[in-house]
Amino acid sequence: MDKDDTPGFFKKHKTTIYVVLLLSAGIVCIALSFFTKKPTTEPTPLPVYEQTTESSAGYAEDLETRLKKILSMVEGAGKVEVLITLAQGEETIIARDYADKNETVSETDSAGGQRETISYDTKDSAVLAGQSPVIVSTKSPKIEGVLIVAQGCGNDKVKDELIRAAQALLNVEIHKIQALKMK
């Protein structure tokens, strides 16, 4: 190859050279991102609720405590108190055994008369394991309303953030959540 052939080589393979350079730059960026990890400052997630009490009050108190803790972390919220009301208690669904029996009896007497008797018998009983019923599932109590009282609720932006956070965390309709300013 002569010195004069070098510019011609670059002109012929200009697109290929640009693609190779771009790929090389991308690989270098990816490699650098692995070596320069930044520490995260995200709050630790709250643990999933495990039913340790069978009472609805215990369930509501646990939710209130967890919600109060997370809402108080919202910038500008200040001190926070939370009250949650439940529509009903915990619902336990047990396994059931159903048995249906249908019986039809047709009779003809000596005079030629006919009679047909139809009987239905339905039995419904709980499936037992020893002396206890078999539990299929347990449904948590339905949340009826949420009241948030916070120092920062004087600020409409903070109030809206608190309401939306409660809505997202508890899956409750927004009209069932109220936020008030603490005195």
Spatial gap, N to C terminus: 87 Å
Helical residue percent band:
25-40%
Please tally the β strands and state the result: 9
The count of domains is 3
Helix count from the secondary structure assignment: 4
Major sheet strand order: 1-8-9
- Remind me, CATH topology of the largest domain? GMP Synthetase, Chain A, domain 3
Shape: flat
CATH class bucket of the largest domain: Alpha Beta
Category from helices, strands and their pairing: alpha+beta
Give a structural overview.
This protein has 183 residues and is α+β, with helices and mostly antiparallel strands. It folds into three domains: 5-35; 56-90 and 140-181, 2-Layer Sandwich (GMP Synthetase, Chain A, domain 3), CATH 3.30.300.30; 97-135, no CATH class. It contains four helices and nine strands, in the order H-H-H-E-E-E-E-E-E-E-E-H-E. Strands 1-8-9 form a three-stranded mixed sheet, with helices on one face. A two-stranded antiparallel sheet has the order 2-7. The N and C termini lie far apart (87 Å). The model is unreliable at 40-54 (pLDDT under 50).
Outline of this structure?
The chain contains four helices and nine strands, in the order αααββββββββαβ. The chain is an alpha+beta fold and 183 residues long. A hairpin with a 2-residue loop joins strand 5 and strand 6.
Outline the fold blueprint.
Layout: H1 5-12, H2 14-35, H3 56-71, E1 80-86, E2 91-94, E3 96-108, E4 114-126, E5 128-129, E6 132-133, E7 135-139, E8 143-150, H4 156-170, E9 177-181
Parallel strand pairs: 8-9
Antiparallel strand pairs: 1-8, 2-7, 3-4, 5-6
